[in-house]
Amino acid sequence: MSKPGDVVSYIQMCVEEGVNLQRGMNFRLRRDRSLILMSLRQGAPYADRVEDGGRVLIYEGHDVSRTQGGPDPKTTDQPEFYPSGRPTQNGLFCEAVRRFKANESPAERVRVFEKIRAGIWVYNGLFSLTDVWREESGGRKVFKFKLELVEESVGFDVPESAAIEHDRIIPSAVKLEVWKRDKGRCIVCGGQTNLHFDHVIPYSQGGSSKEPKNIQILCAKHNLAKRDKII
Known about the structure:
Elements: E1 7-8, H1 10-17, E2 25-30, E3 33-39, E4 49-51, E5 56-60, H2 89-101, E6 108-117, E7 120-137, E8 140-149, H3 172-181, E9 195-199, E10 215-219, H4 220-226
Parallel strand pairs: 3-6
Antiparallel strand pairs: 1-7, 2-3, 4-5, 5-8, 6-7, 7-8, 9-10
């Protein structure tokens, strides 16, 4: 199971989740959690953003599917339901928020992967879905979903003692700069598999997630060997 900061391919994501991922919003791929694919890159199709030092993600809902002869999806309101009345992925996530706010169920747990370039994704961690609203964007209404970082991922394939760092999400621009600088390889052995974005000075020791010089690429072997040591 991926850990925050792990670099994965599309195929690796699909294998890990046990399903062929064909969309960005995936409600209840597994019984205990959902999954979203986000992008903060320039020109991304949806306006996702990160707030509060990585503790909060604001994820934009998805458009109606493009159909031959149909309207441009970017000119119509994002749908909560299909014409048949069945909920879209937007609708499923909205209903999860409503149940949470009504104290009918706990907040939906969502695994979040971020695309940094074609074929390259980074696992940003496990989040709780806590709010949803609609806002105007370019003359139409879009959904905005609020997700908050899970402090202790008990019961979700992470050790009970593993606290996730508050400001550990590395900005997309930093990830891209580091990926180019390190040529997509472990800086220790040159390996190109099982890679991880690592803090040179650990977050626990005051290291920044926002400075490229404090971020490096390590393979799983050398990331494990480093732990909280500075190399």
